Amino acid sequence: MAQRQLVKDHIRQSILDAAADLLLTRGDSAIMADLANAAGIGRATLYRYFSTREELMSALSQAAIDDASARLEAADLEHVPVTEALARIFRAILACGAKFEFIRTEHEHLHLDKEDVDRRIGEPIRAVLRRGMEDGTLRSDLPLDVVSNLCGGLIIGAFRSLPFLENGVERVSAVATETLLKGLTAPSE
Amino acid sequence: MAQRQLVKDHIRQSILDAAADLLLTRGDSAIMADLANAAGIGRATLYRYFSTREELMSALSQAAIDDASARLEAADLEHVPVTEALARIFRAILACGAKFEFIRTEHEHLHLDKEDVDRRIGEPIRAVLRRGMEDGTLRSDLPLDVVSNLCGGLIIGAFRSLPFLENGVERVSAVATETLLKGLTAPSE
DNA sequence: CACTAGTGAGACTCTATCATCTCATTGAAA
DNA sequence: TTTCAATGAGATGATAGAGTCTCACTAGTG
């Protein structure tokens, strides 16, 4: 019967993955029936796993945050040079796939902890950027918020570039990291 | 009675502006009553201007595209160096304000002409990037789509940076342009 | 002043979607 | 083979939001 539980966990995970994908392409207009369908299960079954739409969304948000946060922690950002840390950040976030876009697009007008996102994802990234600004790797004549937003923009651009480069995450991360580093060195004038 | 018409035009414009703002912060969850409220008019009146939600959305999309497109045309991109053209692109898009974000966030799963957006906004921008890749201003070892997506990402980042810099559009455009130019020069290795 | 276009408030209908429930079927465990 | 937890299909109820309509009110217009 431990077997059964394993299967259920797996299904639960499949639902979340499918939901992230579908919500990425269809947005909030994807209804419960669609989500069940995308996960390859019946609507009634979907409700057995997540008793309300709200609950599904929350679980998805939480899973997305956990995923990204875990990858960032595993990247051990504090103990490597800023250049390497930035590369790891891009790799970590891009590896989250559709879940990343879910956080980005939904967390604005959603039921879930903006604070949590900021604390566990935003802050670690900002810490690296701050360090880069202090040690001269990045220009320091701009507010951290600006640097941070430009970095975020590059992450979005990198994510959308995934389909256009071989070697997906690896190559795109490298390109984006390079762009950020070269783009945000001290002003030329 | 030409007077009356002027007032109506003005109200119509106010509705569109208010809608762009509200949809930017609240997303699709903003209902017709909210939109009427944000525009400072009654719900019934809103329906007199736009007889369905769909119609309002379409008008908003169209207004946003027209706005951005007009600014890009006015920028006379083909007849200035790539560096200047890029600066003008950032200024033009950022000047659109909330309408820009509306295009970006809604056009994915919306009723409106992705083709139109691509033809009148995407293509002029890509033309500049293509030119930059050909004349050596930008690195040419990446697919245009990647360069284009990274540029788009920077636009998003720049938009979000607006609140953090004095002189808003001007200063942010300059920073973003510089970042793009320095970031996407020929690879260093 | 009288007239009319335009308005806001609010009652109303209709529909899509959420959520619940039942029941027959399936497939794994005993 | 028997048992039973889990499932899919589909009927059903509940509700939020779209869209319609009426009516009294207001502010420009002649």
How would you summarize the topology of this molecule?
Two copies of one chain form a homodimer.
Chain A: H1 2-26, H2 32-39, H3 43-49, H4 53-74, H5 82-95, H6 98-106, H7 114-134, H8 144-161, H9 168-183
Helix pairs in contact in A: 1-2, 1-4, 1-6, 2-3, 4-6, 4-7, 5-7, 5-9, 7-8, 8-9
Chain A binds a DNA duplex (30 and 30 nucleotides) through residues 1, 3-4, 7-8, 31-33, 41-45, 47-48, 51-53.
Number of helices of chain A: 9
How would you characterize the largest beta sheet of chain A? none
Q: How does the helix and strand content of chain A classify structurally?
A: mainly alpha
According to DSSP, the number of beta strands of chain A is 0
Shape of chain A: elongated
Radius of gyration of chain A: 19 Å
What is the chain-wise order of helices and strands of chain A? HHHHHHHHH
Oligomeric form of this entry?
A: homodimer
Report the helical percentage of chain A: over 70%
Mean model confidence by pLDDT of chain A: 91
The two chains with the largest interface, and their residue counts, are: A-B, 39 and 39 residues
How many angstroms separate the termini of chain A?
Answer: 69 Å
Low-confidence stretches of chain A: none
Q: What proportion of the residues of chain A form beta strands (DSSP E)?
A: under 5%
